[in-house]
Write a structure and sequence with these properties.
This protein is an alpha+beta fold. Helix content is 48%, strand content 21%. The strands form two sheets. Strands 1-4 form a two-stranded antiparallel sheet. A two-stranded antiparallel sheet has the order 2-3. The protein starts with a helix and ends with a strand.
Length: 90
Amino acid sequence: MALLDIITRFFAKDNVSSKDVARERLRLVLVHDRASVSPEFLNQLKEDLIKVIREYLEIDEEALSVDLENEEDSIALVANIPVKGFKRAG
């Protein structure tokens, strides 16, 4: 996915039609099926990522998204983690 596609998807979320939402959900179901990963597994992975990242960064957990996407000949883990700030060491 190109950087322009990511930016377009990020800023166009308010204008997403129900058709596009349904298409995205179907795409995610197909990716999960091909990867043989259950939705529960993906949710647990997301929770674990949040727990680890929260130790170092202040993040917007409501806007965080974790997905599996088809690449050319593999599956990619794609995480969008909005960072609010950094935590101080110590």
